[in-house]
Amino acid sequence: MPACTLSYLGQGALLLGDENAVSSPFFLLAPGWARLPMVLLATAATVIASQAVITGAYSVASQAAQLGYLPRLRVAHTSESTIGQIYVPWINWVLMVSVITLVFAFRSSAALAYAFGMAVTATITITTLLFFYIARVKWGAPLWLVLLGAVPLLAVDLLFLAANMTKLVHGAWLPLLIGITAFTVMTTWARGREVVTRAREAKEGPLGAFIAGLPGHRPSLVRIPGTAVFLNRGDQTTPLAMRANVEHNRVLHEHVVILSIDTVPVPRVLDSERTEIDALGYTDDGIIHVTAHFGYMETPNVPHTLRLLDPARTEGPILVDGASYYLSKIELKKGTAPTMAAWRKHLFIATSYITADAAEYFGLPGERTVIMGSRIDV
Question: Which residues lie closer than 8 Å to 271 by C-beta, 6 or more apart?
Answer without folding.
Answer: 308
